[in-house]
């Protein structure tokens, strides 16, 4: 009964602390019966002595509850003093027994500093170990610094943070619901999608392109989405674009127009809404593998060892840059620069204003199938099964993303979420987190043939495959 | 610069360079109006802790070192600090000693060493599930199946065992 004796001693010293306190505890039963207000008094004293007793908040509430009960019950009131001592001692025992750690003795502001070092996962777990930590974990400062670390912006509210974090974790820990779109009669080779818009474009080996409209309200309806079948309600095929004389290999969405490049060596500009071909641009002498545009220009890369820059308004060729017997497999425009992926294993960065090559990134040992850039960071996917992250200022590989067992065909990257997605000939899609690059965070299996194209936004991922289907992987947590 | 004399809880005196004020806000404040050869009494720092603090201060040459990575990304403290000596320094202490040291450094307002100790404590929480933590820290508060269910449904990602990748 060691704790109890400790308690008695503690109580004694506490009692000596002040006359007021001693007087209150020595109240006679008679006096107590006489004045229920005394209970209020006792309560006030208890609260003011909380820190001296080292009482925790839930222990306090137990005692206060006891006092409240005494108010309602006359027989208990008679033995108030004794009962009060008893309940206090019971509380004390429970607070002494688990003391096999000194951690509880640290002041709370120091504990907060410890919590600062934890990631959301540990914070959640630790907050469920005891009530006190749970209430501490609601502190806004912790979430503010964590969200700054995770997303470079500050979210103070724990619930808001959790919502955002749950969405992010859904990408890495849950199985998405999948909608499969059937419509093309050839491999789906390319996708164009601007996050935020309710539609996307797919291009196929069947020489056509299609526009699909996504009904987000239905996509959020868990019941519909869970059915996991060929969707008719959530996504509808709006427009088809017929006219190319060969497989369509690349497309991009421009200023209210759709631009596509095909194996028939032409680039076509389509009216996005009506599906009419408005321009046919000729000039390349080989298959057009890749295309990108902005408001002023169109850049196209071809297997004829060149890439060309076209004026968006007049559709005239502004620049042609020729390689020596080296196909351009992929490119991305980021005015005034363009990033080129080549058959000869290298990733080149060109300046369009001067038509000069800025830097070559050498490291892959097979052709480059996909490139993606943002500021000074570039990603490349190659037939050597690797995806690499490059620092364009020095032209060196910063991070390797190994995991695919076959050619990497497509890549997408979002700067805000640190997320990279790669699609491969091994029929899988891998999701990477740039904060933890040493392993794949999630693998999506479902396509029965190689995956050629992939795009994603906040909560969904769109992929096109050789199995002629497009799949929408929905990670929405709602 | 000159030397100052620190007096531990037990009354043992230790001489140390006054550069120590770089690391300790408490000492820094005292030195604002300090007279030569005056003893500085540290009533809540034991001799053992004081020795360790000085060892740390001397190793870092009285300069504030780089803070540990925040948040920590590995349960091994050595992966989260830049100086391997720091990791070795805290790894030879047990939990109670670390907490004593935290109390002492908190008193001395010595952020650098306190951060190191706190990061080490945080490392102890990493990759552990609720049951282990409750057992280790002897928490007897009720943890019902209901709460566990709620936790699982609200935060499925938190309950999944994470590989030490």
- Which stretches of chain A are poorly predicted, pLDDT < 50 over at least 5 residues? 1-5, 13-30, 95-99
Give the total of domains of chain B.
2
Mean pLDDT of chain B: 81
- Looking at how many chains there are and whether they match, the oligomeric state comes to heterodimer
SS elements, strand count of chain B: 3
CATH topology of the largest domain in chain A: Methylamine Dehydrogenase, Chain H
Largest sheet composition of chain A:
4 strands, antiparallel
- How would the global form of chain A be characterised? elongated
Task: Please name the CATH architecture of the largest domain in chain A.
Answer: 7 Propeller
CATH topology of the largest domain in chain B: Potassium Channel Kv1.1, Chain A
Indicate the CATH architecture of the largest domain in chain B: 2-Layer Sandwich
In the predicted model, the low-confidence regions of chain B spanning at least 5 consecutive residues are none
How would you explain this protein's 3D organization?
Chain A: InterPro entries: F-box-like_dom_sf, F-box_dom, WD40/YVTN_repeat-like_dom_sf, WD40_PAC1, WD40_repeat_CS, WD40_repeat_dom_sf, WD40_rpt. Chain A: This is F-box domain-containing protein. Chain A: It holds the Pfam family F-box-like. Chain A: WD repeats lie at residues 181-222, 241-280, 281-320, 401-442, 444-478. The complex is a heterodimer of chains A (478) and B (165). With 478 residues, chain A is an alpha+beta fold. Chain A is built from 15 helices and 28 strands. Chain A is elongated and about 100 Å long. The longest helix of chain B is centred in the C-terminal third of the chain and has 15 residues, at 111-125. Chain B has helices at 25-30, 47-59, 84-91, 95-108, 111-125, 130-136, 145-154, 156-159; strands at residues 3-7, 13-17, 39-41. In chain B, a hairpin with a 5-residue loop joins strand 1 and strand 2 (13-17). Chain B is elongated and about 65 Å long. Chain B contains 8 helices and 3 strands, in the order E-E-H-E-H-H-H-H-H-H-H. Chain B folds into 2 domains: 3-125, Potassium Channel Kv1.1, Chain A (2-Layer Sandwich), CATH 3.30.710; 130-159, no CATH class. Chain B is mainly alpha-helical. The model of chain B has no long low-confidence stretch (mean pLDDT 81). The A-B interface holds A 94, 97-103, 105-107, 110, 113-122, 124-126, 128-131, 145-146, 149, 162, 166, 169-170, 172-174, 436, 438-439 and B 68, 70-73, 95-96, 99-100, 102-103, 106, 114-115, 118-119, 121-123, 125-130, 133-134, 136-141, 143, 147, 151, 155-158, 160, 162-163, 165.
